[in-house]
Design a protein that fits this description.
Chain A: InterPro entries: ABC3_permease_C (IPR003838), MacB_PCD (IPR025857), Macrolide_Exporter_MacB (IPR050250), TonB_box_CS (IPR010916). Chain A: Belongs to the ABC-4 integral membrane protein family. The complex is a heterodimer of chains A (418) and B (250). Chain A is α+β, with helices and mostly antiparallel strands and 418 residues long. Chain A folds into 2 domains: 181 residues, no CATH class; 207 residues, no CATH class. Chain A is 52% helix and 16% strand. Chain A is elongated, with a radius of gyration of 34 Å. Chain B is built from 7 helices and 10 strands. Chain B has a 6-stranded mixed beta sheet, sandwiched between helices. In chain B, strands 2-1-4-5 form a 4-stranded antiparallel beta sheet, covered by helices on one side. In chain B, helix 3 packs across helix 4 and helix 4 crosses helix 5.
Chain lengths: 418, 250
Amino acid sequence: MSRLEILRFALRGLAANKLRSFLTTLGILIGVAAVILLVAFGEGASQSIQKSIQRLGANTLTVSASFGGGGFGGPAAGGSRQGNGPRTQARQLTLEDAKALADPEQVPSAKSVSPVVSTGSATAVRDGASHTISQLVGTYPSYFEATNKPVETGSYFVNDDVLAARKVMVVGKTVATELFGTANPVGEQVSLSGVPFTVIGVLKESGSSGLGSQDADDVAIVPLPAVQQSLTGFGALSSIVVQATGTDTTTSAQNEVTAVLNQRHGITPTGSADYRILNQATLQETVSSTVGIFTGLLGAVAAISLLVGGIGITNIMLVTVTERTREIGIRKAIGAPRGAILGQFLLEATVLSLLGGLTGVLIAFVGTRFTVAGIEPVLVPSSIALALGVSVGIGLFFGGYPANRAAKLRPIEALRHE
Amino acid sequence: MTAPVLSLTDITKVYGRGDAQVRALRGVSLTVERGDYVAVMGASGSGKSTLMNILGCLDIPSSGRYLIDGVDVGTLDERRLAILRNRKIGFVFQSFNLIPRMSALANVELPMAYGGVSATERRTRALAALEQVGLSDRVRHEPNELSGGQQQRVAVARALVTSPALLLADEPTGNLDTKATGDVLEILDGLSEAGRTIVLITHEDDVAAHAKRVIRLVDGLVVDDHRQAPVDGPPPRSATRTQPVPGGAS
């Protein structure tokens, strides 16, 4: 007896009770579709969060001074120290620190080092129009690449501009719109706290950063000496942005930076540091692991519904076997071998679950075309394979018991069954 | 010399244990030659259904030796038993036992499907068998669209389509009216005439009158073995088929 023949018997058996077959299929269908859809939404959410983190700059470490719980600004007066370690003197970050970090001998994992001076706000005036820029950054050209801020029109400033302390600036989209409207700001003059700066570029719109309420486009970037000369004075740095050579070197870069700064700031291994390092990769890892937990939870809920669907199949197959005991008896009496009966019922269960699984995948495909609550779902191929595999496995596993029971029936007992 | 189709030696069958023990067969010995037409008679509880189930390899005797076509059934495993049921035995049940929601043709094809016969040959043989029982115009009908007599004729077609060595009929006319009973018995007579070996179980004398040999069972023992016609001749009623009084009418 050929396999095709057994399949035909199985299909005929399913067709004999269409409503029941449909309802059983529905259980598996919902389970499979739920698994794929929920995982896709989880993945979509995770990717969109990662994207907004990446907008902040890839593979970067941000070193900033830390004084107990205080902010930066004032000198390290003894009173503002709250550290409990044997810290001798809390020092601020200096340009020398940045230069030390730029030494490829000591920090081989760093691709670029950008010292940053930023002021909370600066008022920009142009032809009577005025706008308070929420973040004014004085830095080196490498900052643009490290923090992932591409220029849309115009150009970046270059090292010469830094050396010559030229009064040039690259502005964010918000600043450009506020001051110039739709006009092209490149080449125009803007006065910052009375000092004239020439706009040489406009940054590409980064959109809301997704983290924090600050507008990431309300920014102006100028050469470091220029902002020090005219606005902040030659004091401490606000932070140092270190870009690692690659994703896999951020951790070693962090270790190297820590070593250099510990040495320069005279911090003993037991002492608490007077700076902190924000590792973009660590942040990303933390966030994605959090999102991963949620995706896992969603998947688990969906997996339970898949399991319930599987139990539905067992239930239906048990009922079917009981209901068709007599038929099994007849088949055995006319010479059906055990394998044929087993095969028929196993195939019925498998076809049910496979049908449900495939329809579920189809529905999931359609479902992931829609954006729900701003999350664009991303199909995860492995979740499709897993859901389908599990649904077929469920068919074989949960169908196996009833099928085996059917095949083991003695013909005389099966025939007597009413 | 050919082996007898059936050879039973001291077959017993005991159901249950202890106080609830029932001895359905107490030692039946029986030999059925090729081409014979045997009617097994007995009141209910005489053990004739048990005997039938053992003959059809649906049940296993408690003791005794049973050969079909010279093959000792007791030594066969389940898989070989299934093959044996498929190739050597054709069943006709009292309650027809057709598979519901399958056409008459599909029902008749079923044993050949399990026997591994190719689809085209199956179709040809099934149609021929249905024609033999006079149901060529009902091949597409499902059992619930057929009358009792028609269903039983489909069952006969299913039983003989594999050309089995033995045709077993368990009260084949028990659920049928006079007319349908006549039809079915006529078919069985025809098969016997064609040389088919038939064992039929009944409690009706009119049905038993069609057989060449009548065996009576009482309380699990053969009490009477009576030959009505020679093994190699036609069945007794077959010759009278042309007469106006149909067999089985009371």
